[in-house]
Amino acid sequence: MFVLSAAFCLAPAVDAQRGGRGGPPGPAPTAKAAAPIDISGYWVALVTDDWRWRMVTPPKGDSLYLPLNQAGRQAADAWDPAKDEAAGEQCKGYGAPSIMHLPGRLHITWEDDSTLKLDADAGTQTRLFRFGAGPAQAVEPSWQGYSIAQWEVDGAGRRGRAPAAPARHGSLKTVTTRLRPGYFRKNGIPYSANAVLTEYFTTLTDGGIDYLVVTNFLEDPQYLAQPYVRSVQFKRQPDAKGWNPTACSAR
Q1: Residue 138 — very low, low, confident or very high, per pLDDT cuts 50/70/90?
Q2: What phi and psi, each to the nearest 5 degrees, are found at residue 10?
Q3: pTM
């Protein structure tokens, strides 16, 4: 009887903490406080495959494994780096759809409680991931576009009783629009202003080493016959050693 009474006494307090009948709900946690994983810090790209397309600029017209349509192939065959340099568009190969594929390092920090900032030393580029952001119609197109972010927690929405005190993990989902037309590969493989880039950032640990895995889905009805899906990996670094911001290069 004592145990049952104690349970009823505790129930209102627990319900109030959860924002139930015992009291008004508390403020929602900020995106920073709600993060199921920590992707902040320095990361270095692991170029374990696609070396010929990531470490060097491929030859003109090399679009192997990319689902280009006819318009995409025609645009790739017209690539002229001298023309890009003359137009001041050396950064066409460093936009959001391509920057994560380039060799180099990332530095991820919280700009504020609802904005993650990703700096890439390749091309000295900066991306902002905005939680709770509104539509991007009025945003000026840019190389890195406009990215709306949300956390996705592993196992969320499953029915049935969850295991006691499960380890919390998840991923960062970002959707990027309002892109300036650029190159998915530096050799002129194009994406258009209509491209939509969806990315998932997650972490894993192996042998005491933290890794960041980024999977992206690039949709572009203008130049792609179907969405292009690709994953790249990064290894966590303890500090800024090796950080080397470099200018964009058209070649």
Answers
A1: confident
A2: -80, -25
A3: 0.86
